[in-house]
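Researcher: Let's do a round of design. I'm pasting the structure tokens now; please hold your answer until I've finished.
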């Protein structure tokens, strides 16, 4: 990919974390199958448990922010993870609180064990940090996102690190971008929104929100970025604005930026 002319004025870059820098859904899917293998439920196969989890996720996750669960979710991942497993068993008519907790604990630990940076992530971060201040904006519980950063050993690349669970709200809420801009203006006092690049995999969370606040955007698309709840990649909603650029690896980002390839 040649240098993208609309990125010529970029002075600061924010990254999303899951499925942008690391293989969250790959780790999640492997951990689910391992968990269901380790804790079998009589009368149900691993495939049936996996599909029940996906069905329960489709019901639970989209409305989470509008339920009493959200306040707990922001701080700690375990309670809502366990509830998701209870709902999984409920889909099969096999609710067992002990089994739900065993599922939750094993899945949480195994997912973290399977978490990996994408092969080009460190090279890209090491290159870009020489030219740009880098920030991170990630949705999810405070404890889980901090654990991911420790597992991946990348927190030191970013200032600020903005986590939904610590702020009390996440992308694409408007305050996220205001806070991010204020932080970066501490390093670059005259920084304009149009001089910030957001790199992320979620069109709804990462790309649209940043675009609406005047940021440039790089939408990263990978074959691995397929949640078990949908079994298909995210599509750009009809009528939505295009990202500034679409990339298929982090390495492409270097070539899209001026003199950084």
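Researcher: That's everything. Go ahead.
Model: Designed sequence:
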């Amino acid at each position: 990919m040649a240098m993208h002319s609309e990125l010529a004025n970029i002075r600061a870059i924010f990254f999303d974390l899951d499925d942008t820098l690391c293989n969250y859904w790959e780790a999640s899917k492997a951990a689910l199958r391992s968990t269901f293998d380790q804790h079998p439920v009589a009368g149900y196969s691993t495939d049936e448990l996996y599909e029940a989890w996906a069905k329960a996720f489709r019901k639970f996750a989209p409305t989470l922010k509008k339920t009493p669960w959200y306040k707990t979710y922001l701080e700690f991942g375990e309670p809502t993870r366990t509830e998701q497993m209870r709902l999984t068993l409920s889909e099969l008519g096999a609710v067992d609180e002990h089994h739900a907790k065993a599922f939750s604990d094993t899945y949480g630990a195994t997912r973290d064990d399977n978490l990996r940076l994408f092969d080009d992530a460190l090279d890209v971060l090491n290159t870009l940090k020489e030219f740009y201040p880098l920030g991170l904006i990630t949705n999810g519980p405070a404890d889980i996102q901090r654990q991911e950063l420790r597992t991946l050993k990348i927190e030191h690349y970013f200032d600020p690190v903005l986590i939904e669970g610590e702020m009390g709200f996440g992308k694409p809420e408007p305050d996220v971008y205001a806070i991010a801009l204020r932080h970066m203006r501490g390093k670059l006092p005259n920084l304009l929104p149009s001089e910030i690049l957001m790199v992320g995999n979620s069109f709804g969370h990462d790309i649209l929100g940043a675009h609406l606040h005047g940021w440039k955007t790089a939408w990263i698309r990978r074959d691995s970025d397929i949640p078990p709840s949908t079994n298909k990649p995210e599509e750009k909603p009809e009528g939505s604005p295009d990202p500034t650029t679409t990339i298929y690896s982090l390495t492409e980002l270097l070539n899209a930026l001026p003199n950084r390839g």
